[in-house]
């Protein structure tokens, strides 16, 4: 496949590009001819994250905006793209509360422009190969769960609570409409919270590592009882490759790590691991470092996902053990302090 990865210099996109061009995608039944990374390089984009594929002749980087229809059309044509993996996004909930505009533009308008450009591209050049638009969404579009509720699955109703999740929900609906109205081969995935290398330092895990290493208070929203499902980014990338290879157009898949953790417990675990791996740098126990701060407005209480469909139909399951994955992630940030 000749694949366009949008947002490919971001956290998940860069891990995905390296995965697609590594030696594993054939395990998902995928034959990768080329990968084109299209990224606007906002504050969240980081080109060094693609260093592992920088000299691979199958990889091309293009600096551009998914909202720019002319650029997107050129890329699709010149690189004879037959699959789009759409990850370009404004992704930080706190920023969406302060400035929703960028989220509406990139997440909603940008997705619409990309869908339309891909539709026109297939009308002119489609046929033959498997063509696919893989729209990468989030579990946050389903809103929040109470403690005893069953986890979200593909049939859960939409109930987004933040400007971020609302902009993603809007883009999901547009992607669905392009499938239903124009027959565009679209698949949407909903993943839970990712962790791993190259995540921007504003996100929970790297942020806590940075604060702990500086000896500064670890800010935990509310009472820290919010529950999230965590998945290692490598498991998410394997899932996306599997969906690209064998997913059914028009279908949606939830991708979860079967790993629900309260925020407060996650922060404690991070400090414990730092105490082990860098005992000379973190000198106070977690409970002395943690500082409870005013809760985020509209903060969702719990996310959990039931990934039975993708396991049953496509044979994918998360394989990275959370303790091992978190430890590896903390070590990775200790080895890359410039990214904190
Ligand atoms: N990180 C998670 O835990 C998580 C979980 C579920 C779903 N997702 C989804 O996965 C996708 C990737 O998330 P991430 O965590 O890697 O995000 P990220 O913020 O780390 O990366 C986003 C990338 O998109 C690029 N970008 C932003 N606006 C753009 C535009 N207009 N045109 C082109 N590129 C643009 C940025 O430069 C950056 O490289 C998003 O769609 C997000 O909603 C993320």
Q: Top keywords for this entry?
A:
alpha/beta, Rossmann fold, 3-stranded mixed β-sheet, 11 helices, 40% helix, binds nicotinamide-adenine-dinucleotide
Given helix and strand content, the structural type is alpha/beta
CATH class: Alpha Beta
Q: How many structural domains?
A: 1
Radius of gyration, Cα only, in angstroms?
Answer: 20 Å
How helical, in percent, are the residues?
40-55%
User: N- to C-terminal separation?
Assistant: 35 Å
What is the H/E order?
A: EHEEHEHHEHEEHEEHEEHHEHH
Q: Quick check: average pLDDT?
A: 96
How would the global form be characterised? globular
What does this structure look like?
By secondary structure, the protein is of the alpha/beta class. It starts with a strand and ends in a 5-residue tail after the last helix. The protein is 40% helix and 17% strand. Helix 5 links the parallel strand 5 and strand 6. The model has no long low-confidence stretch (mean pLDDT 96). A 7-stranded parallel beta sheet has the order 3-2-1-4-5-6-10, with helices on both faces. The protein has a 3-stranded mixed beta sheet with strand order 7-9-11. A two-stranded parallel sheet has the order 8-12. The protein has a single domain (2-200, 231-259, 304-320), classed as 3-Layer(aba) Sandwich (Rossmann fold). It has helices spanning 11-20, 69-78, 93-98, 100-125, 163-182, 204-214, 233-246, 263-277, 286-289, 308-314, 322-335; strands spanning 2-6, 34-39, 59-63, 83-86, 132-138, 186-191, 193-195, 218-221, 227-232, 252-255, 260-262, 290-293. Bound molecules: nicotinamide-adenine-dinucleotide (NAD).
């Amino acid at each position: 496949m000749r694949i366009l990865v949008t947002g490919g210099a971001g956290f998940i996109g860069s891990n995905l590009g390296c995965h697609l061009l590594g030696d594993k995608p054939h395990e998902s039944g995928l034959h990768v001819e080329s990968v084109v990374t299209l990224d606007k390089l906002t504050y969240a984009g980081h080109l060094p994250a693609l260093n592992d594929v920088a000299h691979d002749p199958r990889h091309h980087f293009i600096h551009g905006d998914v909202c720019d229809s002319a650029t997107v059309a050129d890329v699709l044509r010149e690189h004879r793209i037959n699959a789009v993996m759409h990850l370009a996004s404004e992704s930080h909930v706190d920023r969406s509360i302060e400035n929703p505009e960028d989220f509406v533009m990139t997440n909603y308008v940008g997705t619409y422009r990309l869908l339309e450009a891909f539709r026109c591209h297939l009308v002119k050049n489609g046929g033959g190969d498997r063509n696919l638009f893989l729209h990468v969404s989030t579990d946050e579009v389903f809103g929040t769960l109470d403690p005893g509720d069953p986890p979200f699955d593909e049939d859960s109703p939409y109930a987004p609570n933040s400007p971020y999740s609302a902009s993603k929900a809007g883009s999901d609906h547009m992607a669905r409409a392009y499938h239903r109205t124009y027959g565009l081969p679209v698949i949407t995935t909903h993943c839970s919270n990712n962790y791993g290398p190259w995540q921007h330092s504003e996100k929970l895990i790297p942020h806590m590592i940075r604060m702990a290493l500086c000896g500064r208070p670890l800010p935990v929203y509310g009472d820290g009882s919010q529950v999230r499902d965590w998945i290692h980014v490598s498991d998410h990338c394997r899932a996306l490759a599997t969906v690209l290879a064998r997913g059914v157009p028009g279908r949606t898949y939830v991708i979860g790590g079967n790993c629900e953790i309260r925020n407060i417990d996650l922060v404690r675990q991070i400090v414990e691991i730092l105490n082990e791996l860098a005992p000379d740098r973190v000198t106070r126990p977690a409970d002395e470092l943690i500082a409870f701060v005013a809760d985020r407005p509209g903060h969702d209480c719990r996310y959990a996902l039931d990934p039975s469909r993708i396991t049953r139909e496509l044979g994918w399951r998360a394989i990275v053990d959370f303790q091992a994955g978190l430890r590896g992630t903390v070590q990775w940030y200790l080895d890359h302090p410039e990214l904190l």
